Amino acid sequence: MTVLPRTPSFDLSGKRALVTGASSGIGLGCAVALAEAGAHVVLAARRVAVLQEAVTEMRAQGWSAEALGFDQSDLGAVRAAFTEPFDIVLNSAGLARHSAAVDTREDDYDAVMDLNLKGAFFLSAEAARALMAAGKPGSIIHISSQMGHVGGVERALYCASKHGLEGMVKAMAVEWGKANVRINTICPTFVRTALTEATFDNPERLKWIMDKIKLPRVAEVEDIMGAALFLASDASAMVTGTAIIIDGGWTAD
Predict the structure, then answer these.
(1) Looking at 70, 86, 158, 230, which residue is catalytic?
(2) Which of 215, 187, 188, 210 lies closest to 199, judged by CA?
(3) What is the residue-wise DSSP string for 45-63?
(4) CATH says 16-245 is which class?
(5) What's the number of CA atoms in the CB half-sphere (13 Å) around residue 248?
(6) Is 158 a catalytic residue?
(7) Which ranges of 67-155 does DSSP label H, i.e. alpha helix?
(8) pTM value > 0.70
(9) pLDDT (tens digit, 9 = 90+) per residue, 90-100?
(10) C-alpha 141: how far from its chain's center?
(11) How is 156-222 classified by DSSP, letter by letter?
(12) In the chain, where the domains are located
C-alpha cells in the first residue's frame, strides 16, 4: 500500500507572535495573516493609538491580539519585550531616506542604519536568546526588500541597509540552526501602501517601477501575507537563511 505524504500544517494555534512595525501596511497585513491562522499576535509600533484601533478590529473578527508601544531603535525596549519567548518574531519596522549617494547626510545614514540594521540585529538576537534559553524552536522573519539584492537610483543608503540585513540573516541562520531557530527574509518590490503613495503619484518613478516589474501591476499588501504565514508555520520547517523575493520578476534579469 502506498503511504501518501501529508501537507505540513499552516495552523498557528497556540503560538505567540510579535510583529514590529505593525501599525499599517505590510506589518499590519502580516499581523492579520498570523492571527487569522490562530496565533496570539502582539502588534508593536510607536503609534499606540493606531495599533489599538487595529487590535480592536482584529478582536472583532475573533482573533487574538494585543498592542505594544515599541521603539525598535531603543535597545532597552527591545530587551524588555522578551521577558518570555515568542514562537514567531516578524520585523516589519523600517525606514527609507532616498537621495543621491553624494548628497546623503550623516544623520540620514545613522537613522536608517539604526533601525533597518542595528535594530533588526538586536531584535533577532534577543528573540533567539529567549527561544534558546527556553529550549524552544522558533521562526524569525524580516521584511527586507528586493533592494537587498540589486541597486537602485538614489537608494545607496537603503540598499546598504538591506544588503547588510540579508548577510546578517545568513550568518544568524548558521549560528542558530542546531537550536532549531530559523531566520529568513521576505523581499518585496514596491508595495501599494500609504507610505508609497508619493512614489506611485510620480509619473517618472511609476514608469521606472513598471519597466522593472515583469508582471502587469505593482504589489499589494496581500501579496506578502502568504509568505509571512509560510515562514511562520511548520510548512517552512526546513527553510532558514534564505529570502523569499516577491518582486514580480524585478530581479529575474
Answers:
(1) 158
(2) 210
(3) ES-HHHHHHHHHHHHHTT-
(4) alpha beta
(5) 16
(6) yes
(7) 75-80, 106-113, 120-134
(8) yes
(9) 999 999 999 99
(10) 6
(11) HHHHHHHHHHHHHHHHHHHHHGGGTEEEEEEEE--B-SGGGHHHHT-HHHHHHHHHH-SSSS-B-TH
(12) 16-245
